[in-house]
Structure formats: C-alpha cells, structure tokens
Amino acid sequence: MTDRNRPPAPDPLDFLALDATLAEEERDIRDTVRDYASRELLPHVAEWFEAGTIPDPRGLAKAFGDLGVFGMHLEGYGCAGASAVAYGLACRELEAVDSGLRSFVSVQGSLAMAAIHKFGSEEQKRAWLPRLAAGEAIGCFGLTEPDSGSDPGSMRTRARRDGPDWVLDGTKMWITNGSVADVAVVWAATDDGIRGFLVPTDTPGFQANTIHRKLSLRASITSELVLEGVRLPGGALLPGSSGLGSPLSCLNEARYGIVWGVVGAARACYAAALDYAATREQFGGPIAAFQLTQRKLAEMVLDVNQAGLTALRVGRLKDAGACHHNHVSLGKFGNVAAAQRVARAARSLHGANGITLEYPVMRHMVNLETVATYEGTEEIHALSIGQAVTGVSAFR
Amino acid sequence: MNIVVLVKQVPDTATERKLSSDDNTLDRAASDGVINELDEYAIEEALLLKEKHGGEVTILTMGPDQATDSIRKALSMGADKAVHLVDDALHGSDALQTAYALSKALGTLEFDLVVLGSESTDARTGIVGAALAEYLGLPQLTLAGKVDVDGQAIRIQRATDYGHDVVEAQLPAVVSVVEKINEPRYPSFKLIMQAKKKPVAKLSAADAGIDTALVGLGNAATETVDFAPAPPRAAGTVIKDEGDGGVKAADFLAEKKFV
Ligand SMILES: Cc1cc2nc3c(=O)[nH]c(=O)nc-3n(C[C@H](O)[C@H](O)[C@H](O)COP(=O)(O)OP(=O)(O)OC[C@H]3O[C@@H](n4cnc5c(N)ncnc54)[C@H](O)[C@@H]3O)c2cc1C
Ligand SMILES: Cc1cc2nc3c(=O)[nH]c(=O)nc-3n(C[C@H](O)[C@H](O)[C@H](O)COP(=O)(O)OP(=O)(O)OC[C@H]3O[C@@H](n4cnc5c(N)ncnc54)[C@H](O)[C@@H]3O)c2cc1C
C-alpha cells in the first residue's frame, strides 16, 4: 500500500517542482515553445552547428514571428505583451535546444526591438516594430567594436551632423545577425554623448561581413559591421537615447533572458547525462551506479535547480517592477557559471561520445563560453555585484 | 460559416498509458492529457475555412474536468469559443454513446459544419464521426484529405487505398479529417494570452438533454472484458542469402500475408 499522505518523490527533471508554481498562461507558453523547439529546431541544430550557420535565417525569423516570441514582453506594435516570467520560460526552452537560437530571439526582441520601443519615435516604432515582431524583418544591435568590448564607453564609431543629416563612420564587431539584418541599431559617439541610430542595412557605405571559424555559438550568425560615410536622414536618430545608459539598459533586458536561457542549457545537459549514465555500462553495470557518477549527477541537479530558482525569483521581481540591474547581474553571474559546471560534468560523463555532435553536451558546453562573454563578461558582473555590495567601483 | 470542431483529450502517446483496474476504462489521471492528434488537424482545417469564408469556430469537448487544458490549447490556436460537456454520468461511455451524447450537445448549438479527427489515439474505433452523422441525420464525409466549401456545397477528397474519391454533400454536414489535410499551427503567444478571456460554456448531461439511462459504463453496448499488456517484441527472422535470399524473403512476406 502506498501512503496517500506521503508527498510524491521529486521529478528528476524538475526536482524542486519549480514549474508547479507557474501560472496557467506561463505553462501554456512554456509548452508551446518546448513543443515547437523539440519538433522544429532540435532535429536540425547539430547540422546547423556543424555548418557554422543558420541556413535559412528568414524562414526561422518568420517561424519565431508566427509563434510570437520576438519582443513578446513588449506592449503594443504587434508584440504579445507577455510577462517577464513567460519571456524567461521561452528563453529557457529555446536555449535547452541551443544558445545560438536563444541568441537570435534575444537580439531581435531584447536588443533591437527593445531599443526602438524604449528610445524610438512614434514613426520609428510604427515603421519597424510590427515587422520585427512578425519576423518579416531582422534586426541587429551594434555596440561592441574591435577595440571596445567590456568598456563600450571607449567606442570609436562617430556620428556627426551634416546639415539635417547624420554621417556615421566606424566598425562594429561580433554583431549577432549583422549580415542578415534589415535594420541595425548602431550606437555611436556624438557631440552629445553616445546615441543610437536606426541604419537600414541597404544604406550606401554600410557593409556587413560574416565572421567565420568560430568554435562557439556556431548555430548563429555573427558579423562585423563596417560603416564608411553612412549618410542618414535626421529621423534615423533614436530621439530618446542619451548616453551609455541607453544601450546598457537594452543589454540588461537581453541579459535577463540569459539568466533563464542557461537554465535550459543546463537542464538539457543534465537530462542527457542522466539518460546516458543509466544506459552506459562499464565494469559490469550502468555507470549511474558508481558513486563518483552519482556525485556528479547530484551536483548537476543542484546547479540546475538553484539556477532555476534564481531565474524565477529575478523574473518575479521584474514582473513586480522591483528588478534592479544588479539583480540581473547576480543572475547572469551565478547561472552561467552553474550551466558551465553542468555542461562540463555532462560532457565528461559521456566519455568519448561526449565530444561528438551526436550528443548535445559539448555543443552546449562550448556555446556557454560565448554566453559567459557577451552581455557583460563574468568579471564585469563580478565587478558590478562587488560595487553593489561595497559601494566601491573597482572597474578602473 | 459556423464550424464546430470536436476535440477529445487523450493521454499523451509519449507517456505510459494505463487502464484502471477498477472498471477496465482508461486511467486518465495517470498520464498527461493532450489534444488527440488528428483533432489538431480538424482545428486547423476549421481555422483555414474560417479565414476563407468567415464565421466562428467553436470547440466541443466531452471529457472530465482536466480536459479544460486541451480546450485552452484549441482556443490558443485561434478558435473563438468552446463548449465543455462534462458529467460523471458520461464516464465510461463507448463510441456509440459518445456519438449520441455529442449529437445532443450539438443540438444546443448552431452550425453549418462539424469537423473532427477520423480517429483517436486512445480508443481508435474510428466510428464516432459516422455514428454522429447518423444521430444528427446529416451527410457524413469521412477521411477527408482536402475540403472545399462553395456556398452550401461541400466537397472533399476521401483518402482511399488507391488514391482518393471525391465526395460531395450539402451543408450542414459532418467531416472527419486525416493527417495529410494540413499542417496544424502552433498556438501563438498573443492567442494564449487571450484564450482565458474566451467563453467556455460548461454543459451537463441534463443541459444537453442527454438521457442518462443511455450513457455511461453501465449502459454501454460494448464492454472491455479483459486486457493484457502487449507481448514483448519477438526476435526478428534473419534470412541468409545463399543465392535464394530473394525467394526466401518473398516466402516470408507471403507467409505473413504481406503480399
Ligand atoms: C558570438 C558572439 C555574439 C555577440 N553578439 C553581439 C551583438 O550582437 N552585439 C554587440 O554589440 N556585441 C556582441 N558581442 C560582443 C560581446 O558583447 C563582447 O565580446 C563582450 O562585451 C566582451 O568584450 P570583448 O570581447 O571585447 O572582451 P574584452 O572587453 O576585451 O575583455 C577581455 C577580458 O578582459 C576582462 N576584463 C575587461 N575589463 C576588465 C576589468 N575592468 N577588470 C577585470 N577584467 C576585465 C574581461 O572580463 C575578459 O575576460 C558578441 C560576442 C560573441 C562572442
Ligand atoms: C578523439 C579520441 C581518440 C581516441 N583514440 C583512441 C585510440 O587511439 N585507441 C583506443 O583504444 N582508444 C582511443 N580513444 C578512446 C578513449 O580511450 C576512451 O574514450 C576512454 O577510455 C573512455 O572510454 P569511453 O569513452 O567508453 O567512456 P566510458 O568508459 O563509458 O566512461 C563514461 C563515463 O563514466 C565514467 N566511469 C567509467 N567507469 C567508472 C567507474 N567505475 N566509476 C566512476 N566513473 C566511471 C568515466 O570516467 C566517464 O566519465 C579515443 C577517444 C577519443 C575521444
């Protein structure tokens, strides 16, 4: 007889039953993305990763647009207006397939669209947001430069006035979707500080070159943007943008998606390891039965759940309007590191199989190297948190 | 054109399915419920017809309380409203009784067309569409791989072993669909968020005018007497080619009545 009063045993794949606390609508969004990602993305992702590209970025953008995932947390202009937690869940389920696919959504929704939504004129919003939301147009976000990464305030890209026009010169580097974008949000130094510009990518003087030979985030397109005397009408300026705080506030949105996304990558690695350990036999039994393996699995499930809890807490704070950017920094700092630990352990448990694309673990493991670097490196977030708790800046 | 889509919640085929040992009926609490796969094609076809001809798409589900999850998903795909026929008296109804109960529930609605999947992944009787049409006294167009509506005329391609038949009728009618008819859409986030604001009417057996003496396990025309798990897969037959491999393979297929 089973004791009816005894609580059910934890689900190995949701140990702390975090998803039981989700609202109906949040669960429906989770299920839709999970279903879509496992049917339409997972079967192809290893191939895309090996090819080092997304073969049909327009088709993928359209599919994401139909789902409603682009800018889903924004209001109006064809955006779904979902909660921050729902957006986080979508990121989690996409990144459970691949960090590159979540990056596509982050860049479009949280960087390009959020910049226009926050800082754009009514005309700019109407011109771009509905098309970007529907996936009919692709956007990118150009902040980083070859000589300006963690310290974007040192950027060299300049925008100068010429009569009613603006003229932009400079180079942007590591720009996700740069060479497939219809519009680039480009950040440039002006006499009034750093400001954002909407650059249609067919503007003369604008050129995007795809970056090859990446060993991480291979199922994603990364580019260099070269701007040589790019002449734009006065209406290309994002009127609400002023100073470095503007692009940094967009990065904070995208980072929030990472806090959730890496929980998906970690869960996928852990699930693969659990499955592999149960079926792989050495020394006369499944490797899951060895103490050293169980220790690894115990640490993995702990990391996955602690990261999941952090993401959910930061999400609830965000929905309550109480999320400070340092909360997001803490989430990114802790969760990316947790996901990296899980991915490495899962890789090791897969033995030689773990170094191939037949299993997802090493793909996730190397993707997470990018995730630890972009949107603020691990060190930069440590410095932000250090400053938040001590009141002393140690950036310089 | 007003369309009613019949949507059944079934246990997820990806999870282990069980019969309840008390009464030999499906243990619906033991596994996650999902929309019967072919019903998703029925919903898609109704939405496509609505996009072309206008009107409303109503979901009709008979099933226990937890079937609301499937109703919500159907609304998230784009249906306008839903009717949930839910009553303990209906528990254990067989295919014929289900068709009867659904026909009564449909009697409370106005419609030009009823669309449903041609079978469910749990019971797989494949007769509800036909039985329902009989109860309603409406033309039945089953196994549709393509549907065209022109005014009051409806024409389908009925999938057959040799290709398809073209079958025509006048509306109102009952259409059951097969997989090749379309590619069901995913719910969109916007519709997911609107879904809970869409009307879902709960209907009891009495509301629908169902005679409870005719439905439920005790009154079923069929009875599940016993059940057994599927036997484990037997080892395959290996044919060694010693010049006569082709003949042996053909003999094997003939013996199994495949050729
Ligand atoms: C695949 C990919 C996609 C990307 N997509 C985009 C995009 O779409 N748009 C965009 O604008 N950018 C994008 N980036 C760029 C990304 O944001 C930068 O790589 C990141 O900001 C780090 O800058 P950096 O590479 O120049 O490294 P650097 O800033 O040169 O850092 C090098 C090392 O020095 C450390 N460091 C720097 N300053 C300090 C300090 N004060 N104290 C201690 N350590 C320090 C860093 O932590 C790091 O370990 C992308 C990057 C990658 C890899
Ligand atoms: C690129 C490459 C080249 C190679 N070249 C050669 C070669 O030239 N010749 C050759 O013979 N082999 C070669 N190998 C194979 C290599 O030696 C094996 O991969 C290695 O011995 C591990 O075996 P495995 O991959 O079967 O993993 P498994 O033995 O299945 O191990 C899987 C996981 O279980 C763990 N595990 C196993 N037993 C226990 C236990 N008792 N307690 C706790 N944990 C345990 C392992 O540490 C690992 O984490 C090569 C492998 C690679 C990747």
From TrEMBL, chain A:
GO terms for biological process: fatty acid beta-oxidation using acyl-CoA dehydrogenase; fatty-acyl-CoA biosynthetic process. Residues 140-230 form the Acyl-CoA oxidase/dehydrogenase middle domain. InterPro entries: Acyl-CoA_DH_CS, Acyl-CoA_Oxase/DH_mid-dom, Acyl-CoA_Oxase/DH_mid-dom_sf, AcylCo_DH-like_C, AcylCo_DH/oxidase_C, AcylCoA_DH/ox_N, AcylCoA_DH/ox_N_sf, AcylCoA_DH/oxidase_NM_dom_sf. Residues 242-389 form the Acyl-CoA dehydrogenase/oxidase C-terminal domain. Its EC number is 1.3.8.6. Pathway: Amino-acid metabolism; lysine degradation; Amino-acid metabolism; tryptophan metabolism. It comes from the Bacteria. Belongs to the acyl-CoA dehydrogenase family. This is glutaryl-CoA dehydrogenase (ETF). It comes from Streptomonospora mangrovi.
TrEMBL record, chain B:
GO terms for cellular component: cytosol. SMART domains: ETF (SM00893). The keyword Protein biosynthesis does not apply. Pfam families: ETF (PF01012). Residues 23-212 form the Electron transfer flavoprotein alpha/beta-subunit N-terminal domain. It comes from the Bacteria. Gene3D superfamilies: HUPs. GO terms for molecular function: electron transfer activity. Keywords: Electron transport, Transport. Its cofactor is FAD. Belongs to the ETF beta-subunit/FixA family. The electron transfer flavoprotein serves as a specific electron acceptor for other dehydrogenases. It transfers the electrons to the main respiratory chain via ETF-ubiquinone oxidoreductase (ETF dehydrogenase). Heterodimer of an alpha and a beta subunit. This is Electron transfer flavoprotein subunit beta. It comes from Streptomonospora mangrovi.
